[in-house]
Amino acid sequence: MTSTTVDAFAAIRNPLVRALALARVSMVIGNQIVNVAVGWELYERTGSAWSLGLVGLFELAPVLFFMIPAGNAADRFPRRNIAMVAQTITCLAAFGLMTLSLLKGPVHLIYGALMLVGASRAFSSPAIGTILPQLLKSEQFVNANAWLSSAFQFASVSGPAIGGFIIGWTGGTTWAYGIAGVCQIIFIVAFSTLPAIKPPEAAEKRKFSDVFAGFSFIRRTPIFLAAITLDMFAVLLGGAVVLLPIFAKDILHVGPEGLGWLRAAPSVGSLLMLMIITRMKPMKRPGRTLLIAVVAFGLAIIGFGLSTSFLLSMFCLFLTGVFDSISVITRMTLEQVVTPDRLRGRVSAINYVFIGFSNEFGAFESGATAALLGPVVSVVGGGIGTIAVVIAVAFLWPALARIGPLHTLKPQEEAEIPSETEARHSV
After folding, report:
1. Following CA atoms 284, 134, 79, 413 in sequence, which dihedral angle do they give, to the nearest 10 degrees?
2. N or C: which end of the chain has fewer CB within 10 A?
3. Bridge partners, residue 3, by sequence
């Protein structure tokens, strides 16, 4: 990537993009506060790495269950409305966690609230993730995605820090959950300013097989399949975040405030990298850059696992954010430019399962391996596995390294998926 004079602020001047950014900031801050609070409360009450791993498992289960209906809903109904209803459920779950914290309710009810959060995200993610193409032209996607991802990372930086500060200041998680619920209310208000656009009607009468059209599209689009496979297994194996309460308390000895900063460090790196991306020319070989970035991500995870210094650990987590942001922008833009709008909800729902599966099941995997082998072995082994996955993906889908600039790619119908030779000029 090299410098250019492109208008870095083009997308953010659009009031719809600003409203979408505000909504995402408030939503992510609330989600991050809940993540920090749940992790700290469970480890304080149980002292078990298994209890941290189960967080991901309970959030993942409803995503797998609701994936197909959520994707189809996003392709049939106004995506704005779906997102608002879903985040209302998240808001109620946050206030439920607040009540459980206040009353010292049973741990199993905390997991029940997390299942509500997972169900909400199953519907909100494909709705939110596919609304941008209804608002902008394709040539604006990269710049808009960089700004929206920057908003996401800003929230990911401030959310954990806010959560850790509130827990340390109040001596408990009750107020943290309450503030998280207020953040979801702000999301609902901001999202209500976006237009309620109904996706286009299908040209033919809907068939039962249309429910699974997203699977067929991804299977026949090898470049996109390669990108999400790489992202899924990299995050699955490199998921050190769930173990941060253990590192903060038992290895680095920095308490809840330090936990908040450790959770924020990857987002600081991502935010910096995304700000750079808004001022750069489109990547000439985004697939090759993606492969290199994920290898670097794995190396940073290994460095974090081996570190016993708070500052070095912060720096390694910072680097994971830098390299992960490249993967996020590439995958997100690739999905938006190659997927026909009639399939965007179903494809996005499947994509979210890939990412949600890697995040949530990765949390379970990290918790399980940490309980069996220790947190250091769990994290270092995950980093090594991430690098191995990059090698496998590069071998299985060599066309990924040859694709051209993302803005030159076009939406592909299911029957028009090109060969690998054609991939360098299309998909």
Report:
1. -60
2. N
3. 280
Q: For residues 411 and 123, what is the distance between their CA atoms, to the nearest angstrom?
A: 24
Residue 254: CB atoms within 10 A of its CB come to 18
**Cβ–Cβ contacts within 10 Å for residue 200, how many?**
10
What is the three-class DSSP state of 307?
A: coil
pTM of the model: 0.63
Residue 105 CB partners (closer than 8 Å, separation 6+):
99
Q: Convert the pLDDT of each residue in 326-338 to its tens digit.
A: 877 777 777 767 6
d(CA 391, CA 230): 10
Distance, in Å, from the CA atom of 339 to the CA atom of 355, rounded to the nearest integer, reads 17
**Tokens found for residue 127:** 């709705």
Burial class (CB in 10 A: 0-12, 13-18, 19+), 289: middle
Q: Tens of pLDDT along 22-55? A: 898 899 999 989 988 998 888 888 877 777 767 7
* C-alpha neighbours within 13 Å on the C-beta side of residue 197: 16
CATH code for 11-197+211-424? 1.20.1250.20
